Amino acid sequence: MSIPQYELANPPTDAISAIQFAPASLRLLVASWDTFVYLYDTSSPNGTLLKKFVYRAPVLDVCFGENENVAYSAGTDWDVRRIDLIDNTQTVLSSHTAGVRSVIYAPTHNLLISASWDATLHIHHLSDSSRGPIKISLPGKPFSLSATKTKLVVAMSSRALHIYELSSLASSTPPKEPWQRRESSLKFMTRAVSCMPTDLGYASSSIEGRVAVEWFDPSPESQARKYAFKCHRQPSPEGSDVVYPVNALAFHPIHGTFASGGGDGFIALWDGIAKRRIRQYQKYTSSVAALSFSGNGKFLAVAVSPGFEDGREGIGEGEVKLFIRELGEGEAKGKGVK
To answer: Which is it for the CA torsion 255, 256, 260, 261, positive or negative?
Structure first.
């Protein structure tokens, strides 16, 4: 593909809540408040809408599962669903007692984990269909999930954060306590969390234009390395900063750098180790709602949806957009890498 960025045709008609590339192709799943899950092939300019799946209520998250023909979804209908992308069937795996904010597939243990506003996790052991989900209570409402090969990070209300070992969640007896309990390094509500592909730590973002980078290792030496920084702030005519929420975080699967997307309509690439911004892309038409890198690290999917930052309510026709950006050689490589 010769063009560095193109817009997908047939985008959702309401705000986008989540996007995810397939692990080994350029298929893209999209969840939206318009009550649909979308499946696109993004391998050619403008992409191709392959399928749409309708729900009873807004869809809040979606992910690929054991292979690229299986997806899982979560939404405000309280259900966790399996979608067969070949025969178009949907199966309810479990039901929470409130909206389900996040769903994530952990391939190393073949687990599906959902997090609901009822302050519980449901752990689904997909290798044993006769086994019901294990339920784990949380101290607050979960806002975001992310996982590595060995760990699950749950960011919650009241700045609480739990880290679980996936091997413990996969056992026949669920853990009574997380591996680690933490308080967010950020002073305001967490908006997103994303784990490093190296399995060493994670980044989190807040509604108040900040990102924190932390490490799993509980030793004082490793904890001394954690830091937070300001971002996604724009000058106002009065000379002060207008602070925007950092809605989205995504780590590059190869280089370990990460992208942040904000309510200011900007995307920035960061080197979390060198503590430097690599680059900032041109401003999008409205708030960046979600980001996803392709499995080979060569493409970045961008979901643009109007937020409430401009004081308007409602979404006009054509305001929700999906872009695929092709990354140049070394474009996402860290500053410290020669």
So the answer is: positive
Q: Which two tokens stand for residue 108?
A: 């190393």
281 close to 288: Cβ distance less than 8 angstroms: no
Q: Is the pTM of this model over 0.90?
A: yes
Alpha carbons 323 and 303: distance in angstroms, whole number: 7
- Distance, in Å, from the CA atom of 244 to the CA atom of 79, rounded to the nearest integer, reads 31
The answer to whether 104 touches 145, Cβ cutoff 8 Å, is: yes
How far, in Å, CA of 212 to CA of 200, rounded? 14
pLDDT computed for residue 338 by the predictor: 45
| Alpha-carbon span 49 to 36, nearest angstrom | 12
Radius of gyration of the chain (CA): 19
Nearest alpha-carbon partner for 23 in 121, 93, 145, 108? 108
Rounded to 5 degrees, what are φ and ψ at 238? -80, -5
Residue range 250-308, pLDDT digits in tens = 999 999 999 999 999 999 999 999 999 999 999 999 999 999 999 999 999 999 998 76
One-letter-per-residue 3-state SS of 124-158: EECCCCCCCCEEEECCCCEEEEEECCCEEEEEEHH
Residue identified by tokens 């401009």 is 310
Residue 3: exposed, middle, or buried by beta-carbon count in 10 A (0-12, 13-18, 19+)?
exposed
Q: What is the average pLDDT across 27-34?
A: 98
**Helix residue ranges per DSSP H, 186-238:** 220-223
